[in-house]
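Quick note —
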Amino acid sequence: MVGLSDIPSVGKLVDRISNAAVDAIFRGFRYMFCYKDLVKTLDSQVEKANTEEERVSTKVAAERANGELIKPHVDKWQKEAEEIKESAHKFAEKYKNRHSCRCIQCVPIPNPVSRFRLGREAVQKTERLTELINSGKELLANEIAHLAPGENLPKTNTEFQEFQSRKYAYVELWHALITESSPVLGIYGMPGVGKTRMMEQLWKDAEEKKIFNKVTRGNVGNEKLDVIHLQKQIAGHLDCNFVSEDNVESRASQLKQSLLNAGKTLVILDDVWREIPLDVIGIPFGDGNKEKVCLSNKCQTLVKITPLQSDEAWDQFKNIVNSAQIDSMHDESLAKKVCDKCGGLPLLIQAISKALQFETHNSWVDALEQLEKGEFVNIPGVEPQVYACVELSINKLHGDAKSCLFLCSLFDEDADIPMSKLIQLATGSHLVSGILGKLGYYQWLILSDRLLCCSIPKKMIVSNFMMSSEM
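Predicted structure written out below.
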């Protein structure tokens, strides 16, 4: 007689069902009779999970100390590890207070349901812990963090001031930037008039308004053109890492491709004193490319920055010197004459007003006389009044401040000089006396103010001063 099991397809189904039923029965018996061993296995996995979590936490702390951002899946693993460990801890408490036996007339009888549940839960939590441990090992075998993307915004010690006389120039430049078909545009003006600050504001606004995919900048300078250094500056804002360290042609080709890949790009070249070969540097322009080059000198589209108007210059001068200081001299006309000698140039106004900020009336008279009757050195490209103001601002610096200024001249042009580095060099070279305590701290506050470091937070000066004092 033929049964259902003799039919091939039905026979396979019956075998599977019977095997599953047998497996379930054996698992149930294992849960009930081996629950203590299963709990011991769980305890062992908890210890391994603790060790693995400690290894991951140590590596995470090290990466954070290096200034890197932890990847999201690593944070997720740590949260999951905490949840599983907490669940295992609650199970351990429940196991200690278990009732695996029932008492019938003071005779303990095993409770199969309680033992089954304990054994099954122990196995489930052991499996989760095993998966957690394996995934933790996989995490440690790969990168768990990455560097934070740099903030592509200009870093400056002074704010861009929107003088009424500059508003038209900036609006004209911005209009040319977003509408002109010319790929090259820029601004020009005498040294100290504020070209760099306007460039930085242009960079900031272009970033915030997202009219370009990328904004990058390089400082050309008035020395011999350093193509490799300029390429490095531009590539730094594009996250472009050069394959070659010294091959100009190879770097130019890579930089050009990086700019093309970025799409619509603004390249700001500041302090341009001569004709520069954009193709040699690796800056594509023309031929339908989406790049725009903004220069601070001769360009196809020019926007001139003029000096401040007299009332704007006087307002800035008074704000720095302090109106109360000027009133205390009882000679406002003297201060106005000194201000006029700055020619409406913001940089000179800043320097002269800082130099005379706490000086006596006689010092102001002497300063005006130097500006009017001093002998000037003829330097190509530098106006005599500019030279006179710069010379006066340096001469008015006291010994320590002047020494720090000369130390600054040892750095590259337009270098971002950390205050901590300047303090270390000044005290280490004995150019500035290493006075400790409150007196030393206030001396550094005065020095930083004299050197136009007016936007450096006092907390930073305190921490840097304490660090140099401990050396």
